[in-house]
Write a structure and sequence with these properties.
alpha+beta; Helix Hairpins; HSP40/DNAj peptide-binding domain; four-stranded mixed beta sheet; three-stranded mixed beta sheet; elongated
Length: 305
């Protein structure tokens, strides 16, 4: 993968707003739905999405800028960070954090002080053998599509042993949500460790999340704005019909109830649709109309100009 700053075409000091703007522009251009016969565009869309995901994560961006991780988010040090811990790719391409294997100090003390048999112990009768250690936890990174996260669609994940599990996403799921799968980690004398699944929600080319609500800028024609219309609008649940009031301005926001994310309380957010009037290019009739049209209202009167 190329440098994330180059992938998005932004400077190294770009702020979040500039990164989001660059991503949305490229995502609309490269989205697979618009480039079904262009595999290079699909590949570049994937690179752009990964770059956006990394640069919008403050911690990862700082690690990348310091040279601690590469553009894929993998450690650049040969053995990971923090001593004994490390990362390894699993069978489905996910990254696993094997953690640090703990030494059995009970066995060490028994060897030093003659424990286990009839030998004495400097701790007297209070000495207790340490309980057998569980196996190591395994960390997984699961990418979820925006619409799937909003509608809580089940997600399939492949574990380190090759087995697959269908996960039910929790209400209130958001970027960085962690799910613990008990006993799905590595085996050990005290039982299996756990699997820790961190959720990463892929950005969407035209939806934006606002708490439990979803924001959408909807292009409409001048005719639809002036006369009003019933038009089809995309939602995470599928297209629905929306009534545009006659005389609508750009920036007017309409609400579609219960078309947002599922909140932790169980109440679902809304979809907020902001109308954006798009004028046709080189329309002679429209140009002729406005040439002799002198509206009496000043649209900037509220600004004192």
């Amino acid at each position: 993968m190329i440098d994330p700053y180059q992938a998005l075409g932004v400077a190294k000091g770009a702020n979040d707003k500039e990164i989001k703007s660059a991503y949305r522009k490229l995502a609309k251009e490269l989205h697979p739905d618009k480039n079904k016969d262009n595999p290079k565009a699909t590949e570049r869309f994937s690179d752009v999405t990964k770059a956006y995901d990394l640069l919008l994560d403050k911690d990862k961006r700082a690690q990348f800028d310091r040279g601690e991780i590469d553009a894929e988010g993998n450690p650049t040090a040969p053995f990971g960070f923090g001593g004994g811990g490390g990362y390894q790719r699993g069978p489905a391409g996910q990254r696993h954090d094997f953690g640090n294997a703990g030494a059995d100090f009970g066995d060490i003390f028994e060897g030093l002080f003659g424990g286990g048999g009839g030998g004495g112990s400097p701790f007297g009768n209070r000495q207790r053998s340490a309980p057998p250690a569980k196996g190591a936890n395994v960390a997984y990174r699961l990418k979820v599509e925006f619409s799937a996260a909003a509608t809580l669609q089940k997600q399939r994940i492949t574990l380190e042993d090759g087995k697959t599990i269908d996960l039910s996403l929790p209400k209130g799921v958001e970027e960085g949500t962690q799910m613990r799968l008990s006993g799905k980690g590595r085996p050990g004398p005290g039982g299996n460790g756990d699997a820790i699944v961190t959720i990463h929600i892929n950005p969407h080319p035209f939806y934006e999340r606002d708490g439990d609500n979803i924001s959408l800028e909807l292009p409409i024609s001048l005719k639809e704005a002036v006369e009003g219309a019933k038009i089809k609008v995309p939602t995470v649940d599928g297209p629905v019909m929306l009534s545009i009031p006659a005389g609508s301005d750009s920036g007017k926001t309409l609400r579609l109830k219960n078309k947002g994310f599922h909140g932790k309380s169980g109440v679902r957010g809304n979809q907020l649709v902001t109308l954006m009037i798009v004028l046709p290019e080189k329309d002679e009739k429209l140009a002729e109309f406005v040439k002799d049209w002198n509206p009496k209202d000043n649209p900037r009167a509220s600004m004192g100009v």
